[in-house]
Amino acid sequence: MDLYIWALTGNYIVIPIAIIGISNTFSYFNRILKLQRNNLSLELDFLRSQLNPHFLFNSLNNIYSMVEETNELAGNTILKLADLMRYSLYESSSENVLLSREILFLKDYIELEKIRHTPDTQINFQADGNFEDHRIPPFLLIPFVENAFKHGLNTVGKKWVEINIHLSNSKLVFQVKNSKPTAQSEQLQKGGIGLVNLKKRLDIYYPNRYELKINNSAAEYDVFLQITLK
Questions:
Q1: pTM, whole model, 2 decimals?
Q2: pLDDT surpasses 60 at 9
């Protein structure tokens, strides 16, 4: 009788423990399956991020081969666009890039802007110096150039943009001038968020080694930047 009672009470103890063990096992495998699904999703996202740029570049190359013989301007435009994308996606991921590569990026960007505007719009770009021996944070200069085209050519009458880059004795001089619309927003007059972020980057990378002057007159917007690179 005592043995029967012991067996009965023992079952009451063993069965719940077994149920708990089975439940924990199912929970464990559910977590494993969730992790596997999450990992698979991450892998797919990674593959998409790798495939999409290649797909775009291959498509641009195919389009270029289709138009280069019949439309030289269109072909050159496609090449410049592909180069801008390649630089933005791959080359600009490092902390510093060759100054020559950054200058080439600016040049391609300006050439594409020329296509968008009418022939009477004056767009001048000049760069001189040995840019191969220096490095610079990527996209450091482009905000001023973008703003010049975005705001400087949004006007009636004579429209113009001038961009000059000069490098000598490790001193980089960068100047952007543009015509101004008759009415400007308060954000543009103050420089906007992009200018604030650019100043922060300059303070980080070139503390006490740069000079930035902005002349916002009634007729033009003039940016002068000088950086001691070494």
A1: 0.68
A2: no
